[in-house]
Amino acid sequence: MMDATVLDKLFETIAARKGADPSASYTAKLFSKGRNKIAQKVGEEGVECVIAALSEGNDKLVSESADLFYHLLVLWADLGVKPEEIWAELARREGISGITEKESRSKE
């Protein structure tokens, strides 16, 4: 069974591809195209997840979700965001009502 550590390992691999030869690595190619392209790919994969959830079944949703996670990790690496920052934010929110948490953000 996999857990969140697989995302940490994937992030390390992705971060190591930053500045690598774009002809040898899809990840390096994404980095070379810049943040706008990376963010666009995150959006595309998010939409593909929605489509899969509504009309293509669980197997397709699993596949598209993996693609979404991958592209999101590329975006984090491009911006210098570390997975542990996200995990810490999720941990901070644990046990807090979603409604309460959203209200606290609107006051910031």
How would you sum up this structure, described in words?
The chain is 79% helix and 0% strand. Helix 1 packs across helix 4 and helix 3 (35-56) runs antiparallel to helix 4 (58-79). It has a single domain, classed as Helix Hairpins (Orthogonal Bundle). The radius of gyration is 16 Å and the shape is globular. It is built from 6 helices and no strands. It has 108 residues and is an all-alpha fold. It has helices at 5-17, 26-33, 35-56, 58-79, 83-93, 98-106.
What value does the average pLDDT take?
Answer: 89
CATH architecture: Orthogonal Bundle
Number of helices: 6
From N to C, what is the helix and strand string? Answer: HHHHHH
Catalogue the unreliable spans. Answer: none
Rg for CA atoms: 16 Å
Structural class: mainly alpha
Principal-axis shape equals globular
Our count of domains comes out at 1
Superfamily at the CATH H level? MazG-like
> What's the CATH class label?
Mainly Alpha
**What is the CATH fold-level name?**
Helix Hairpins
Structure described in brief:
Helices cover 79% and strands 0% of the residues. The chain is mostly helical and 108 residues long.
